[in-house]
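Shipment paperwork, digital attachment
Item: protein structure file
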Amino acid sequence: MTNMKRPKSAAVSSRLIKWFKKRKVNVIVNEKDPKILKSCNLFIGLGGDGTILKVARMAAPLSKPVLGVNLGGLGFLAETDPHQMYKTIDEILSNKYKTQNRILLEARVSRNNKVIGAFIALNDVVIKNGATARVINLDMEVDKQYVATYLGDGLIISTPTGSTAYSLAASGPIIYPDLPVVVISAICPHTLTLRPLIISDKSRVKIKVKSNHNEVILTLDGQNNLPLKIDDTVEIKKAPYKLKLITAPGKNYYEVLQTKLKWGKR
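Attachment content:
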């Protein structure tokens, strides 16, 4: 998958398709039909993290491996770039690759005791204020136990993969990708004692909207949005499947932090 409207993406995609055809490998570009996708052996995301997130949500339910090729800026989810991707894909075709399992979150929205939306997210589930930046009230339970009422700009429920995304900007911790945990971070809380909370990925989080205005939005991976109303509830749990993210041989997570987040730089 790639954005063919961008010249760089279209050019890299075109070269890669020709490379595959020389090796007699069938290629499908930007396909969305589940039946066709199920027949694929490998998913490749050419672009930034946004593109790779879209590919991940498509591939994970099908238990298909995903390779991210960075054509954007940070590219935190990408394991290779346009210069190294041919070598990496050659190794994949020779079955010389490893995958790292990444958990996803499943979010269900209920209104008047009826489910009105169900979503999955690789990075995070976010409930936040709208365009006017009015503070919002959110009641949160974990495993049917009341935790707190959050007054502020919202809440981020993040996977370890998403701990380096929006959650990090909200002063959340960086979590090693394969740890079985979920991070809950408040966005600009009015009460400064409400610090980030790490819970088991087996836990279930329930958030109820208590704000009586149309300025509350549910966002999944920063890409899918749903307006929320007072008394709507969002229930979040670990998805029943994981993403198989292809990792480059000899590369470790701390190197990624050093390269992408400039750890150790002065």
